Amino acid sequence: MLGKPVIKGTRIPVELVLEKLAAGQTEDELLLDYPRLTREAIHAALSLAAEAVRDMKFYKLAS
């Protein structure tokens, strides 16, 4: 997957899981669409996203 993080033991990109959740798909719908996915893996994807945002630095630009 070109170095992008995937759900362990699958080829499901974390990015895909996050995009589906952001688009309004529920955990239950994801689990039906991707049988190899687990609820714990979905939560791990969310945790990874939170960690990535937490480590970001933001700078206010002068107007």
Kindly name the structural category. mainly alpha
Helix content: 40-55%
- The helix/strand order is HHH
Number of strands: 0
Q: Low-confidence parts, pLDDT < 50 over ≥5 residues?
A: none
Describe what you observe in this structure.
α1 (14-22) crosses α3 (39-54). It contains 3 helices and no strands. The protein starts with 13 loop residues before the first helix and ends in a 9-residue tail after the last helix. The chain is elongated. Helix content is 51%, strand content 0%. The model has no long low-confidence stretch (mean pLDDT 93). It has a domain at 14-54. It has 63 residues and is mostly helical. This is DUF433 domain-containing protein. InterPro entries: DUF433, Homeodomain-like_sf, WH-like_DNA-bd_sf. It comes from Runella salmonicolor. Pfam families: DUF433 (PF04255).
Short structural description:
This protein has 63 residues and is mostly helical. The chain has a domain at 14-54.
Features:
single chain, Homeodomain-like_sf, mainly alpha, 63 residues
Sequence-ordered SSE layout with sheet pairings:
Blueprint: H1 14-22, H2 27-33, H3 39-54
Helix pairs in contact: 1-3
Protein name: DUF433 domain-containing protein
Organism: Runella salmonicolor
Pfam families: DUF433
